[in-house]
Amino acid sequence: MNEQMKNLLARMESVMALAKDYMEGDNKDIEKANEKMDEYNTLKAEYDTQKRIYEADKAEAAEKADKQIADRNTKKQEADAVKKFADAARAGFPRNQTQKDMSEGTDADGGYTVPEDIVTRIEHLRDAKYSLRQDVTVTPVKTKSGRRTIKQRSQQTGFTSVAEAGKIGKKNTPQYTVLSYDVEKYAGYFAVTDELLEDSDANITAELTAWIADEARVTDNKLILAEIAAEWSTLTDFKDIKGIKTALNKTLGQAFKPTSAIYTNDDGLNWLDNLDDGVGRPLLNPDPTAPATLRLRCGATTVPIRVIPATDLPNLTGAASGKTRVPFIIGDMKEAISLFDRKQITIKSSDVAATTAINAFEQDMTLMRAIERLDVVARDMAALVNGYIDI
């Protein structure tokens, strides 16, 4: 704030005080109070204008300062390049300099004078990721182990006809089973030197945090897929699109077919994408309500496709020569799998912790530890069909 702005503020406060005085007591003078408020508004408009000019001058000065710093940095880089060139000269160029041409490719012949394009900002390679946690039933729990009561699936036969005064027959009652869980700990630690944290232009902590979050995603996927594999001793050979339709219509039936999805990898997606209905119309199409989601037309039913990267859902072994055995998991994951989460992933960092291999305090390092506690159990495997197609 400059002196003019300070003076205007002081005058505004004085004028406002006079306007309030004219409106106090029994002898109010509204006309004079209005005159003072008009004067106050004029002063305020002048103050606002002075403030805009002041802020514009301040921004211009900051811009000039930034430019001066950038110019100094450029000159320093040029000076460093000259110094390198001079040092190379002092170290001794080839004696027969008259027969040498200057070139960028050789440091001593002028390459030292060419600045390098070095960017310290971390660039990320594009990667495909999918989290199966979003598809299964996730239940937060507060104990290490426990159980849930599940009503068993059974075929009801209905009531029977009873004659007058006849005996009424006994019927079956609902039957129940329990779904037990036992939480296990999954964890890992990551070490980084304090020099890197202090000197790197990149946000190393944010990089590590994102890396840890992805480690948790991979852990979830591995546990879910391992539980599905453990429940299916023999995989179903779907053979072709007809096998997929049979799995939906008969094996899963109306209990699960309306909420089912097809899980496969890129090879499976490519095979589905080349299917047509016999007259050239593709069976795989975008969902009109969500264009990023693909749906497979199976007769009168359309089923969403979930594409899992091959790093998480690799192709299977056992295919005949020249073919690829591609995994296809069909069904309702929420009904099939339960994930009991004792504690969402937690991250702690320390610069004094020690392991058998690293002493953070002694080695001037920071250790980051990540822990998640969970259990994945099969809830109802009748909701899934696990199989493959040899393509």
Q: Could you give the topology of this structure?
A:
Layout: H1 3-22, H2 30-91, E1 137-140, E2 145-151, E3 176-182, E4 184-193, H3 194-199, H4 204-231, E5 236-237, H5 241-256, E6 261-264, H6 266-273, E7 284-287, E8 290-298, E9 301-307, E10 325-331, H7 333-336, E11 337-350, H8 360-363, E12 365-378, E13 384-390
Parallel strand pairs: 1-11, 5-13, 6-9
Antiparallel strand pairs: 2-3, 4-12, 6-10, 7-8, 8-9, 10-13, 11-12
Q: What's this, in brief?
A:
The protein is α+β, with helices and mostly antiparallel strands and 391 residues long.
Task: Provide keyphrases for this structure.
391 residues, alpha+beta, phage-related protein like fold, 2 domains, seven-stranded mixed sheet, 8 helices, 13 strands, 38% helix
Explained architecture:
The chain is α+β, with helices and mostly antiparallel strands and 391 residues long. It has two domains: 1-118, no CATH class; 134-155 and 173-390, phage-related protein like fold, CATH 3.90.1690. The protein is 38% helix and 25% strand. The chain has a seven-stranded mixed β-sheet. A four-stranded mixed β-sheet has the order 1-11-12-4. Strand 7 (284-287) and strand 8 (290-298) form a beta hairpin. Helix 1 runs antiparallel to helix 2 (30-91). The model is unreliable at 117-122 (pLDDT under 50).
